[in-house]
TrEMBL record:
GO biological process: nucleotide metabolic process
Localisation per UniProt entry: Cytoplasm
Keywords noted in UniProt: Cytoplasm, Hydrolase, Nucleotide metabolism
SUPFAM superfamilies: ITPase-like
Record's signal peptide: none
Active site: 70 (proton acceptor)
A Pfam family: Maf
Native species: Sphingomonas jeddahensis
Catalytic activity: UTP + H2O = UMP + diphosphate + H(+); dTTP + H2O = dTMP + diphosphate + H(+)
Site feature: Important for substrate specificity: 13, 71, 154
MF annotations from Gene Ontology: dTTP diphosphatase activity; UTP diphosphatase activity
Enzyme class, UniProt record, top EC level: hydrolase
Protein name per the record: dTTP/UTP pyrophosphatase
GN (gene name): maf_2
Length: 191
């Protein structure tokens, strides 16, 4: 009998990305997890900690597999989560303008065997220098609200990207290569 997959995320983007690899979760549960970075926490440690917390926050039957993920933007040691408001979004875009940053996506899968498996995707994204008008227009579009680092690469912000090295799907919110490998190792049938 195939494993029941539970997606521990309310993100419609993660659900759509799973569909791209032929995976449909049996259930979608939005875990209630505090995503506040700890003092002096490194960005890599942060995304792994939050993804792990999401995975363990979801109740799981022995026949189920839980998939959780977290994505964040790192500029040096600074962690850019989801903007709190338009002023925060403006500040993030000014920080990202004309420079490269890391998009870190941690994936955690708890298998039927109860074993927790993790992977971290690190994608380097370089933005072109943004004008004040481009930033203001993007902020006004509302697209960056609710997105790590204040932008959606699959939307208007793709026009800001000069270069990307790594996983495009990881920047969207779920690195599919790593996710597929973890699901396969955890007993989930893949198409």
């Amino acid at each position: 009998m195939p494993a029941e997959l539970i997606l521990a995320s309310a993100s419609p983007r993660r659900l759509a990305l799973l569909a791209q690899i032929g995976v449909t979760p049996a259930r979608v549960v939005a875990p209630d997890v505090d995503e506040t970075p700890l003092k002096a926490e490194r960005p890599r440690d942060y995304v792994l900690r939050v993804a792990t917390a999401k995975a363990v926050a979801v109740p799981r039957r022995p026949s189920a597999v839980v998939l959780a993920a977290d994505t964040s933007i790192a500029v040096g040691r600074r962690i850019l989560g989801k903007p709190a408001d338009e002023a925060d979004l403006l500040r993030m875009l000014e920080l990202l303008s004309g420079r490269r940053h890391h998009c870190l996506s941690a994936v955690v899968v708890v298998g039927i065997d109860g074993k927790m498996r993790t992977r971290l995707s690190d994608t380097v994204v370089a933005f072109k220098p943004l004008t004040a008008a481009e930033i203001a227009t993007y902020v006004a579009s509302g697209e960056g609200m609710g997105k790590a680092g204040g932008y959606a690469i699959q939307g208007r912000a793709e026009g800001f990207v000069r270069r990307i090295a790594g996983s495009y799907s990881g920047v969207v919110g779920l690195p599919l290569f790593e996710t597929r490998a973890l699901l396969s190792a955890s007993g989930v049938m893949l198409g």
